[in-house]
């Protein structure tokens, strides 16, 4: 039996989120995954094909394709009755996913030292500034998920700068599934942990600026492991 996390009803889509034209199954899958990562869709939430088709302005066919893709990524699950729900990750699944992700992203950071161009460092610095600004804005009670978008961009820039396309694919894969739904727990981190997270990003950035591969790898591995600990603590207390 699949455990269900209690929560309020799903929020209605904003005008920006409501599609006015047909969308591909890939675009739909990416948007659903983003909503899982930001906590709008929480573990155990049902995903109605009819409601999604109406919202995205498409038939049920691309919705089914998107859900099948997300099921293969372990971001959603199917109940015995065939209903799609956001996956409820076990602590074991989350731990294993983050352990793999730490090694992959640590390798990417080490490789990026040799390939990262000055303009990419500038993009990374700008991304980190926006990440810190939007994450701190949550302390002031502001809503929104921009900080998660900047966090994802920060990690993606480093993965792309590794120069290893297969490694990039593996990292992207690991950022979905158990990690995606587990990140909804991280979105509730208190201010003290937000500042720690910002400092961890800055340590990674500093090592990359110094072109210090071992330091960049270590900073990234430690950052991902600390995020894993945060998520597991929140899961245990929920």
How helix-rich are the residues, as a percent range?
55-70%
Largest sheet, in brief, is:
3 strands, antiparallel
Quaternary organization:
single chain
CATH class of the largest domain: Mainly Alpha
Count of discrete domains: 2
First and last CA, distance:
19 Å
Shape: globular
Low-confidence stretches: 1-21
- Strand content bin: under 5%
Helix/strand/pairing category: mainly alpha
The helix/strand series, from N terminus to C terminus, equals HEHHEEHHHHHHH
Average pLDDT number: 84
Helix run count: 10
CATH fold naming of the largest domain: Four Helix Bundle (Hemerythrin (Met), subunit A)
Strand order of the largest sheet: 1-3-2
Query: Could you state the CATH homologous superfamily of the largest domain?
Result: GntR ligand-binding domain-like
DSSP, total strands: 3
Please give the CATH architecture of the largest domain: Up-down Bundle
Please give the radius of gyration in angstroms.
Answer: 18 Å
In short:
The chain is mainly α. The chain has helices at residues 25-38, 49-56, 60-72, 91-115, 118-137, 146-161, 165-174, 177-186, 191-209, 213-237; strands spanning 46-47, 76-78, 84-86. A 3-stranded antiparallel beta sheet has the order 1-3-2.
Write up this protein.
- The chain is globular.
- Strands 1-3-2 form a 3-stranded antiparallel β-sheet.
- The protein is mainly alpha-helical.
- It contains 10 helices and 3 strands.
- It is 67% helix and 3% strand.
- It folds into 2 domains: 62 residues, Arc Repressor Mutant, subunit A, CATH 1.10.10.10; 147 residues, Four Helix Bundle (Hemerythrin (Met), subunit A), CATH 1.20.120.
